Fold 4-oxalocrotonate tautomerase family enzyme DmpI1.
Amino acid sequence: MPVITIAGNDGISVEKKREMVKKVSETVADAYDLPIEAITVLVQAYPKESIGVAGELLSDR
């Protein structure tokens, strides 16, 4: 059973998360030739003050 983890900042709406999880699940199920019920997607959302890029926090950009 494939488990997909998507990590990013917390700037995405619940509706967009639903859409993303559905599309990713369908794509991976197709690639593995599995039913969509066999796919697990974990969405990890981090606040901007917990993400560093190029030596600085996203919240400071």
Summary: The domain at 3-60 is CATH 3.30.429.10 (Macrophage Migration Inhibitory Factor). The mean pLDDT is 96. The chain has one domain: 3-60. Strands lie at 3-9, 40-46, 52-53, 56-57.
